[in-house]
Design brief:
The chain is built from 13 helices and seven strands. By secondary structure, it is mainly alpha-helical. The protein has a three-stranded antiparallel beta sheet with strand order 3-4-5, with helices on one face. A two-stranded antiparallel ribbon has the order 1-2. It has a two-stranded antiparallel ribbon with strand order 6-7. The longest helix has 21 residues. A hairpin with a 6-residue loop joins strand 1 and strand 2. Helix content is 39%, strand content 8%.
Amino acid sequence: MRHFFFLLLLVPAVAFAQRNDAYLAYIDKYHELAIKQQQEHGIPASITLAQGILESGAGQGRLAVRANNHFGIKCHDWNGARIYHNDDKRRECFRRYRRVLDSYEDHSDFLKSRSRYASLFELDPTDYKGWAHGLKKAGYATDPAYAYKLIALIDEYELHRFDLMTTRDTRRNSRLARQRKGQTVQVVSIAEQALSATTPTGKVSAYTLHPTSRMNGLRYVVARPGDTYGSIADEFGLSEKNVAKYNDMSPEAKPAPGERVYLQKKKRKAPRQFATHVIQQGESLYGIAQYYGIRLVNLYDLNGLPYDAKAQIGQVLRLR
């Protein structure tokens, strides 16, 4: 018999899901540009940032480095500078910009000037899931999982918080963050907690303690510094023991900041659109199981792995 607590012995502290440092740096560097686009053009800042991260490889892809092209926009109806890059076909023509700001501005103009994206601008500006699915439906990308990748980025890095901010807000928050460096407890007023009683998914309210998102049909929150399974359980009226168990951990363990904490029992398989996963540097089997909302034991079983197996870079994991 395979026991749950046997698995706990096989999950070292270093196995916690880690956020990508390049993504965090990109968000820190460009979130004000994204907010500016929302203010001037009505495109959710979260969508702009997620597309920028995905299309540019967090600013590290060839198009971003050599052409300041952060959104993979090709040369259709373009009279400006250009660069050639292998994409769906060899040596396709892409737009080249003088500044990253120009890429962000052109991305907004690209969406606003094409009728196939017109319906997106009728959505609530905080409806990032509607925008993500709308972009895929309108043909922005050929990747069948494009919308889900955008949503996963937004949820994982809480990019939806920028949809509610002005540029002034972000500058003030950055100042406060520097002043509070080293502190781990976020102070939330009783009034704010009361206003956060109902937390939507796919849209965000202005006042939330832990916004909930969904993966694999399951509700989860993103852990913050100082969180415990007990504190999260109390917030949602759940049992500490159950919340820890849902996440393949013991109540004495603590979730790492940035880690997904599920509020329901995880499933045996990933969503249909995620059949496999190629292990990248810095990933762990536990982190991958958390990302897709799969029980750790089932991830091992799906791949015929011993329960003490470690993640191997480049290994293709079955998720279903």
